[in-house]
Amino acid sequence: MAEATPPPADAPLPATAQIGVDSWVSEADERQARHTGLWGYVARGWDRLPPAGKLALVTPAILIPFIPFVSSGNLFNYGIFILIYALLALGLNVVVGFAGLLDLGYVAFFGFGAYTYAFLSGTHSEKGHVYTHHWPAELAIPVAVVVCGVLGVFLGSTSRRLLGDYLAIVTLFFGQAFVVFTNAADPYGITNGSNGLANIDNLRFSFFGHAFTIASVRAYYWFLFGCVIVVLVLLHLLSESRTGRAWKASREDPLAAEMMGMPVNRLKIMAFALGAMIAGLAGTTFAAAQTGAFPQNFSTQVLILIYAVVILGGAGSLTGMLVGALVIIVSNQVLDSTSPPQLQRVLFYLALMVGFAWLFRSSWKKLVTVVVLTIGLGFAVHAVAAEWWPRGIHGPVTSGGFLTGAIKHWVLLPANSGRLADYAYLLAIILAVALTQLKGWWRVAIAPFLFVITVFVWENLLILQPAVTRYVLFGALLIALMATRPQGLFGTARVEIV
Amino acid sequence: MIATPQPRLGSLGGQYRHRLGSFGGLGIALVVWALYAVYFSPTQGWTFFLQLSVNGIILGSIYALIALGYSMVYGILKLLNFAHGDVYMIGSFIGFGILTLFGGALTPVMPVVLLVLIMFVVAMLGSGVLGVAIERFAYRPLRNAPRIAPLISALGVAFFLENSALLLFGAQYRNYDGYDLISYNGIHLGGDAGVFVSYLGVIVISSAVALMVALVCLVRWTRFGKAMRAVSFDREAAAMMGIDPDRVIAKTFFAGSALAGAAGVMFGLLFSQIYYLIGFLAGLKGFTAAVVGGIGSIPGAMLGGLLVGLVESWATGYLNGNVSDLVVFGILIAFMLIRPTGLLGSPALQKV
C-alpha cells in the first residue's frame, strides 16, 4: 500500500476520558514484554535463578562486619538498621505483598515488641511502681512475639467487617493509639511517657546451663543476620505453600477465592498475625541492641521508611525487601544530620543524576542535549550573576570537600540567601510537576532549569537540613514509584481486573 | 450480587426515613449523656456543660469543613485522600503569610474585615490549586491501578507536604494572634457567669455555615454539581453522557481543598498557634467526622463534624486533653465496625 488510508470520518476519536479499565488489562503483556536489550537479559537471568542463588546474590551485607574501617557506631547505624528494617519489611510484605491488605498500624507492633521486651527484661521505675523482671531472652522473645501475634489477630479481626480503605484507617488509628499510649495515657508507669525506657537487658540466653549474652554490636549484627535468614527461608517456603498461594489468590480476588473454598477471613487474620509477630521479633532485638525503647523510635517516620522499603523493593518479593532495606536505610543514615556533608552531597547528586538519566533513558540524543545544556546553563547563570549581582556568588560552600571548586564556579551561592532558597524550592517543585506533564523536547527544554535550580536549592537550603530532606525525598519516592513503577524493583506487575 | 446504590453526593433529605432509628438512638444517647454529665459530674453544672458544648460546636464546624473535602473526594473517586489534612495545614500557613504581609495581627495596615476576607480568599485559592496539583500529579496516573496504589501515593504526598513545610517554615509555632486581630470580647449568654461565646467563635461558625450553604447550593443547583453527582454515581456512564470525569474530579478537588484551606485559617484564628504537624491530627479527625456522618454524604459530613467536635470538647473537659484523641478514635473504630456506612450514608455493598 502506497499511502496509509485516512481513518474513516466516523471512527471514534481517542477520547481523553478513559472509559473502562480494559486498556490497563490489555496492555499488561505489552508492559511485561518491554524488557528488551541488556535490561531484559538481566531480568530474565534473574528470573531463572533458583531461590538460593538469589539469596546468595542479595546478601553482600554479610561482608559489612569484615570491612576493616567499620567502627561499631557505623556497624550499628548501617548494619543493624539495615537488618532491622529488612526484618520489618519482610513482615509487612506478608500483609501488604502477599495478602494485599494495607496495614498502616504496622509500626505499633514493632513498638509493642520492643516495649514488651523492655518490660520483661529490664529495670525501670515510675509513678511509684518498680518493674524489675529479668527474664532470659529465650523466654522473653517468644512471649513478646506471641503478644504481638495476639494483637495482630485482634487488629486483623477487624478486617472481617472492613474492606480496603476503612481497614487502612482502622490500622492507622491503632498505630496512633499506640503513640498516645506510650506518650501519655499510661496510669501504671509501664512506658515511662515520652522519656521512654532505658536500662534494658542485653539478650541473655541460657540453654542447658550454658549461658551466653549478646553484648557487642557485632554480636547483635550476627544474631539479626541469623533472624533475617531464618525468616526469609520460612517466608519463602510459606509463600510457595498452600497458604501462600491462598493469600495471593485472595489478594487478587477475594470473592473468587472464597468461592474456591478458601477461608478468606482466616487468611487475612493469619497474615496480620504473622506480620505482627515478625515485627515483634524485630522490636525485641531492636530494644535490646539499643538498650532502650523510646516513643520516637516508633513514629510515623518509621512507618514511612518501612513502606518505602517495601514499595521500592517490590511488594510480594522477598529479595526485594533486602535490596530495598539496603538502599533506603543507607540513604536514610547518610542523610542523617550526624554523617559528613560530603557524603550526603555525593549521594544526593548521584540520585539526581540517576533520576535524570532514567527520565531520558529512551533517547541518547536527548540525554546528551540535556547534559550539555545543563552544564552550559550553570556557567551562563554564574557568569551573568558575576556581572550583575556579585553578592550572588560569594557565599560560603558548606564543607565542599573535593567538589568545592566545581561548586564555586558552577552554582550560585548568595552570601545571604534568606528566603531566596525557599522560593527556589517551591519553583523546583513546580518545575518537577511541569516536567512530568510535558513530553518530548519540551521536557528537554525544562530539564536543565530543573537541574540547576535543584542544585541551587540543595547547596543553599537542603544541605543545612539533611534530616528533613530525606523525608521529603522518601515521600517523593513513594509518589514517583507509584506513578511509574508500582511493582518496585523486584515485584511482579499486577493487573487488577475490575 | 445486586448492584446497590452508591453513596450519593448532595442528597439532602427525604431519603433518610430508614435512618430514623439511628437518629433516635443518637438523640437518646446525647440526652442521657447530657443528664449524666450535669448531675453526676462532681463540681460543674449546666453552665460548664453548655460552655463545652458551645466550644465543641465551634471546633466541630472546622472539622465539618475538613470532613466535606474527604467526603466529596471519596464520593467521587472512592479514594481516601490522606494528604487532605496537610492541604489544610498549608492553607493555614498561607493565611498566616497574608496576615504577616499586611502588617500582622497587632498592626494591620487595612481594615480588619478586609484583611480577614483576603486571608480566607487567598488561602482557599492556594489550597484549592494545591489540591488540583496533587490530584493531577499523584492520583490521576493511578486511576486504573490496583486500589492500594493511590493510597500509598497519598501517604507519600502527605509526608512530602509535611516535611516541605518543616523545611520552609521551620519547626517553631507561628502565632496568628486571632483574638488581638478581631476582639477578645464576645457574647455572654445568661449573665457573666453564663456561657461565653467569643465574637471570633461567632465568625468561625457563621463563615463555616456560609461555606457549607454555598457548597450545598453548588452541588444541588449548578451544572457542575449535577456533573459531580453523575460522576460519583457512575463514572463510566457519566463519561458516555459527555461529561469529562477528569475535569469534574479536578474541580471537586479544588472545592474540597478550598474548604480545607478555609478551615486552616479558622483554626489559626481560633487557636492562634500553627505548626507543620497540625494537619495530621486534624486530618484524622476530619476523616472520623466523614465516616461517622457517612462517607460520601455532604450533610453527613457536617453532622459528623459537629459530633466529633462535641465529643472532643466534652472529653477534654470531663476527662483530660490526652485521652480526648483516644475517645474520638475509639468512637471512629466503633462506628466503622458497627455501622460502616455512618449515620447518613447509604448501605453500600461491594459492587461486583
Comma- or semicolon-separated keywords:
heterodimer, A: 498 residues, mainly alpha, 2 domains, two-stranded antiparallel sheet, two-stranded antiparallel ribbon, 4 strands, 64% helix, B: 352 residues, ABC transporter involved in vitamin B12 uptake, BtuC, 70% helix, 3% strand, globular
Protein described:
- In chain A, strands 1-2 form a two-stranded antiparallel sheet.
- Chain A has two domains: 59-331, no CATH class; 346-464, no CATH class.
- Mean pLDDT of chain A is 81; it is low at 11-17.
- Chain A has 20 helices and four strands.
- Chain A is mostly helical and 498 residues long.
- Chain B is mainly alpha-helical and 352 residues long.
- Chain B has one domain: ABC transporter involved in vitamin B12 uptake, BtuC (Orthogonal Bundle), CATH 1.10.3470.
- Chains A and B meet through helix 8, helix 13, helix 18 and helix 20 of A and helix 4, helix 5, helix 9, helix 11 and helix 13 of B.
